[in-house]
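$ fold --in a.seq
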Amino acid sequence: MQLKRVATKQVTGGYALIDSLVRHGVEHIFGYPGGAILPIYDELYKAESEGKLQHILVRHEQGATHAADGYARATGKVGVCFATSGPGATNLVTGIATAHMDSIPMVVVTGQVPRHAIGSDAFQETDIYGITLPIVKHSYVVRDPRDMARVVAEAFHIAGTGRPGPVLIDVPKDVAQEVFDYIPVEPQGIKLPGYRPTVKGNPRQVNQALRLIREAKQPLLYVGGGAIASGAHAEIQEFAERFNLPVTTTLMGVGAFDEHHPLAVGMLGMHGTAYANFAVMECDLLIAVGARFDDRVTGKLDEFASRARVIHIDIDPAEVGKNRAPDVPIVGDVRTVLNELLRRSQEEGDRPNPARNQAWIHRINRWKQDYPLEVPQYPEVLSPQEVIVEIGRQAPRACYTTDVGQHQMWAAQFLKNGPRRWISSAGLGTMGFGMPAAMGAKVALPTEQVICISGDASIQMNIQELGTLAQYGIAVKTVIINNGWQGMVRQWQEAFYDERYSSSNMQPSMPDFVKLAEAYGVKGLMVDSREQLAGAIAEMLATDGPVLMDVRVKRDENCYPMVPPGKSNAQMVGLPQRPVKATATELIYCSNCGAKNVSTNNFCPECGTKL
């Protein structure tokens, strides 16, 4: 490792930690103090008083991890959070696992009992290094303060490069107190032997991928969270337009492609659009870009894109071939590989051609017409879908966070998000994520609208963070889609457990959310009619500080489409009724040969393909 060295001075290990964070561009830390980490907080106090950074005091350590996570997702920077030893450290575990599952760059600093007490079951001692080992990208226990600057530099490098992820730094109390000759380490030039993520794609595999793309008649671009992490939004659009590729995204990939674009097919998977799921089942080439073939995407794995050849582009070689063996594996950074594909294809004469794959595009567009996402309206009560659609209409460029459940899926279906404007716990599915993540995003983006879409069950997991929003004037707008249930649990109990609603009804002990918000010093609003909705959302958005809005919606509304567990993506339930036959004026294309006007029977008269 190449280190830039400057003159030494006598400092504590805690000072070395804080100074190293400042040198790595850290402006905000989310955390909660306690005995073992007090020497670090003492140095943090001095740095804050000098205006070097800001500490945001959360009300629960889990809120700190989710806030750091949201900060990282909104910016692409490494998020930072602090907690003390013992219960402080263990309260971080869910947030660390959330970041790990979704590949979010974070540096997590925990206090620890003094070195001589480690292993003695001292007060508030836990082996947080061992506890978190399966859910971090890397871990450190700093046993010598002279290692502090190097450890911080390595942690940031590891967290933010390759496949991003959380890195833990555990600091014994006496290490933070010990005075030593300090030699800072600047972030430039960090190199770790044995840690060299592959960035560029193999040229031979790039050529093979281009050949398959040119041969395909029904290709589909399948985009995951790796595209967001890589910042490959512009490259994905150029790539899709050059080869006229329909684009579907995972829950983590939402925002990687403009949902208003005519090639957009929306999200696929368990609660994806019908047309995205039909497309993935019928495609003859699946181009997976920064996606990991998650079970909520694939449904029954052996029937997922079963007719397709597969190109898989991912920076993590462990993901390539893990769930689906690709015909062309390309290990590398998504943005870099896409640029290589674009450059090579341009050199070989490929140009944007709207006529390419036209029969396939027409077929997908027909599915869009036949199976649209529906926004029901009921006479006496609001539907959750219309609430989310109205929020999206009034705040089209906001940064959205969600909790987990039905509201999360409706938000993913109906909100049209830009790059890094969709923040949701996808892999772990963590209830209580939404509001603290929104807090982190708003701290990172102080001039932009940040809206959390939550549910009445999820919001109560970390509702204490209203106190943090109030203390710092963090103007997060939180909307509770309130149906009085653990909504997704109720839907599954209805569908698969003969309507035995075991421990999923939240209504008997529902708090008055408006009064609760006001108790924290946050503005509260309640909406229970269609006539109130638009005005209340406008009032919420116009309010300077944080707002909590409780919207009462239809209690038994289900989230559709839905792929039942163990079924293929084509076996969705809850679809609108498809027209029985085409009308005389409709123009239908054969997906195989492109022949027109083939709607008179079930087979193409030109090539015999079943329609």
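$ fold --in b.seq
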Amino acid sequence: MARSVFGEAVRGASHIRNGKECQDSLKIVEKGDNTVILAVADGHGSDACPYSKTGSDIAVNVFCRIMNDYLDTYAGQPEMLMTFLKREGDTKIAQEIDAEWKRRVWKRHGAGKREIPVNGDGEADRDAVYKMYGSTLIGLVITELFLFAFQLGDGDIMEVSPQGVHNVIEADKLLGIETHSLSRSESWKKAVTCVRRQDEARKLPVMYMLSSDGMANSYKDDDAFQKTCSDYYELLKEHGAKAVSRKLRDWLSETSKLGCGDDITALFAYITE
């Protein structure tokens, strides 16, 4: 099998008009055993979250570091790792991501010599600091044996193949602009995970796409969004990953301009014979 991995994070049309930076972050880790780790995070970008770009950057790095460590620990034992993730993905893994994100945020805030709010008891208000860096997080680990998907907050992890378009993971979506966040106390309790064994009889090519909510929100409904996922799949089949990756930034910028105006990140893994 051959695999191409690429992605872009673009500044939303409304953020350009308002002079705001892109709040999204993405990260790719490709390992030598046909394993890849993908992560996308979306900083909240509100006035209450002035450092959310830093928060999203920390989020993707934390996910990739933790998952890479587990892959190394269970090197040569993929069945054991798959079993562990099924049992502990939405508890132990989610707790580690939550705790490590908050540890790094606190350290970064202190290193930046930024003001630390105090609570009613006159003590450092850590929760108030975490809120300043608020971010969502979605991640996907693709191995030859299994998929592991992680989601905390909004965004989408999609799979497109000859069998059609499917959500890899069904997350708890809130109404309006509300979303679950790494900045919340015990955020790990809102994480949703999925472990799925790779079907040896699956038909290729297959495309996985991780996208921040600015992507889906730029279309009128889920059907229109899934149609766009299929369009990207057909473009990859017809023109190849290099051609699509060269045009991706322009396409995402146009999507934001014609759609919701939010930042958009799209991260692809395309697997062929």
